[in-house]
């Protein structure tokens, strides 16, 4: 079929890369199944940096710095 279509990505049993090579485009094309995990991970990391939350093996705790007045 590759010879008929001239598609070099499948010619000779080679496999082409799926998805964009550019990191920015890959982020834009993140599917809705993976997006919540990436957003929650980034949010958790952002809250740990100024020590608003603390994480343990069995859960997390809101630090005093993260409490509203």
Q: In words, what does this structure look like?
A:
By secondary structure, the chain is an alpha+beta fold. It has one domain. The protein is 35% helix and 12% strand. The chain is built from three helices and two strands, in the order H-H-H-E-E. A two-stranded antiparallel ribbon has the order 1-2. Strand 1 and strand 2 form a beta hairpin. The longest helix is centred in the middle third of the chain and has 14 residues. The model has no long low-confidence stretch (mean pLDDT 75).
Report the radius of gyration as a whole number of Å.
22 Å
Q: Can you write the helix and strand succession as a string?
A: HHHEE
- Main β sheet profile: 2 strands, antiparallel
How many domains make up the 3D coordinates? 1
Global mean pLDDT: 75
Bulk shape: elongated
Gist?
This protein has 69 residues and is an alpha+beta fold. The chain has three helices and two strands; from the N terminus they run H-H-H-E-E.
What topology emerges from the helices and strands here?
Blueprint: H1 2-5, H2 23-28, H3 35-48, E1 53-56, E2 59-62
Antiparallel strand pairs: 1-2
For this entry, give a set of tags.
69 residues
């Amino acid at each position: 079929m590759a010879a008929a279509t001239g598609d070099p990505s499948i010619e000779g049993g080679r496999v082409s890369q799926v998805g964009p090579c550019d990191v920015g485009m890959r982020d834009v094309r993140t599917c809705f199944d993976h997006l919540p995990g990436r957003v929650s991970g980034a949010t958790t990391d952002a809250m740990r940096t100024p020590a608003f939350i603390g994480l343990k093996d069995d859960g997390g705790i809101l630090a005093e710095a993260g409490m509203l007045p």
